[in-house]
Amino acid sequence: MKTKTNIKETVTNYAVGDFLIRVKNVAMAKNKEIVVKSNKKLVAISEALKKMGFVDSIKNEKGILTVTLTFKNKQPRLMDLKLISKPGLRVYMGVDELEAKKGPSVLLVSTPKGMTSSLKAIKDRLGGEAIAEIW
Fold this sequence. Notes:
The chain has 135 residues and is of the alpha+beta class. The chain is built from 4 helices and 10 strands; from the N terminus they run αβαββββββαββαβ. The protein has a single domain, classed as 2-Layer Sandwich (Dna Ligase, domain 1). It holds the Pfam family Ribosomal_S8.
């Protein structure tokens, strides 16, 4: 017997923001897994989060994206998240602005070479759209 994945069919204007807030809510509830409808941008964000160490595994099958969060000492690595760019206000940062950003948080940046962390963007000397701040 086949198991049916229960995905809520929601219509959203900003799929990236919706996905990131869902990830934050799952982490705050100390659950390990989130299942959403897949698209290229969400897969790229998930891969970037995996490289940053916030996500343990990603499974993309038949248009369904399953993301498993990383836990350390029964606590999620992703403590909080704040959206920076929104549909009504896109925020772009150059390398100098990314370097000036201080604190323990890291930015999720959409660069011409794909989604990456602010640390990697600074290393590669790339600017781009600041999607979210994660700590």
